[in-house]
Structure formats: structure tokens, C-alpha cells
Specification:
By secondary structure, the chain is an alpha+beta fold. It has one domain: 3-Layer(aba) Sandwich (Aminopeptidase), CATH 3.40.630. The chain is about 25% helix and about 30% strand. It contains four helices and seven strands; from the N terminus they run βααβββαβαββ. A seven-stranded mixed beta sheet has the order 1-2-3-4-5-7-6. Helix 3 links the parallel strand 4 and strand 5. The longest helix is centred in the middle third of the chain and has 13 residues. The two termini are about 20 Å apart. The C terminus is likely disordered.
Length: about 180
């Protein structure tokens, strides 16, 4: 299957929320224990900025209206200005599109464009038990920068969180550039 991407629109938010909610029962990719609502994600979406903190949706070639995953570059550590050179990456896939190459595609596209958005580093956290995600990120050059033992509780199961990061090649914000689109 061939995937493409585009900038997310407000009309994509229900599909984005559905994809995010699909991982909650699995207890493998988020510490949210209850489904989120579209209304609860409105502010998150409104704060995204295609020129700085974009959200991109994946779709099958020729079907841009069917959202099959999403990736976002978000403010790092509560958006404190000193961290503006680092993006917190989030990547979620529709269950029917996991293991099909879409995750690798979306991750490679985000990494390829992050420097032009002004980032020097991309970082994220992944549950230590989520070997599939850890392999994906490692295959794109991310390295383990730390491990936080038992910081999450998923229905009584203590979970370690692995902090991974990727330094990017030297582009700066001043060099401009737009998003993936």
C-alpha cells in the first residue's frame, strides 16, 4: 500500500480522535486511560501551527479524505521558550494500517521537514514494552536518551517510559520553510 500525507484540517479532528482512542484500550501508547472527545482536543488542534507545530494526516494514495494515521510536532516540555529548538513528536496509526509501512513513511516525512521548521532536535517518549514503536524510531536514527522506571501505571501494571531523541542537521528557523504539505 502506498501512503501520502497532507496537513490536517479541522474536519480531520474526529478521525484523529478515533485513531488516538483506538490505542487507549491496548495500554501500549498513551497514559490516557479513558477515551478523549473531539471537544477535549479542540484546543490542542487550534494551537497547532502549520509553520511551526504542524499536524499531518496520512492517507492512502488517491484517498486523501480517509485519514489512516497522524503525526504531529508539538511544543516540548510545556512550551517553555528555551526548548523551542526541540519538537515533541507524536505518531498514531489506525489499527488497520499498522505494520503496513505508514508509520515509517510518516516518521520519515516529519524528520525530513523538522529542520526547516526550526528544530534542532526531535524527542518523544515510548513505553518500554512497545517494542514495535521502539524499533520504528531506532530505524530512523532515534537513540535512547533515558529510561524512567515505573513512572506509568496502566491498570495496575507499572510501565517504564523510554525517552528517545534525534539530533537534526543544522537548519535553523531563520532559513524558513513550511510543513509537509
Amino acid at each position: 500500500m502506498t501512503y501520502q500525507h497532507r496537513l490536517a484540517t479541522r474536519e480531520d479532528l474526529p478521525a484523529i480522535v478515533d485513531i488516538y482512542n483506538s490505542v487507549i484500550p491496548e495500554r501500549s501508547a498513551t497514559c490516557d486511560l479513558e477515551p478523549v472527545t473531539v471537544a477535549s482536543r479542540e484546543a490542542w488542534f487550534a494551537e497547532s501551527d502549520p509553520q511551526r507545530h504542524p499536524i499531518w494526516v496520512g492517507h492512502e494514495s488517491g484517498r486523501p479524505e480517509v485519514v489512516t494515521g497522524y503525526v504531529s510536532l508539538e511544543p516540548f516540555l510545556n512550551g517553555r521558550r528555551g526548548y523551542d529548538v526541540t519538537a515533541d513528536l507524536a505518531l498514531y496509526l489506525h489499527p488497520e494500517h499498522r505494520g503496513s509501512g505508514q508509520g515509517a513513511y510518516l516518521l520519515s516525512q516529519a524528520v525530513a521537514r523538522a529542520s526547516a521548521l526550526g528544530f534542532r532536535t526531535i524527542a518523544t517518549t515510548i513505553f518500554a514494552s512497545n517494542e514495535r514503536s521502539l524499533r520504528l524510531f531506532r530505524s530512523h536514527g532515534f537513540r535512547e536518551w533515558g529510561r524512567l522506571p515505573a513512572v506509568a501505571d496502566l491498570d495496575g501494571r507499572a510501565e517504564d517510559v523510554v525517552f528517545v531523541g534525534l539530533p537534526l542537521g543544522g537548519s535553523s528557523r531563520e532559513q524558513g520553510g513550511s510543513g509537509l504539505g
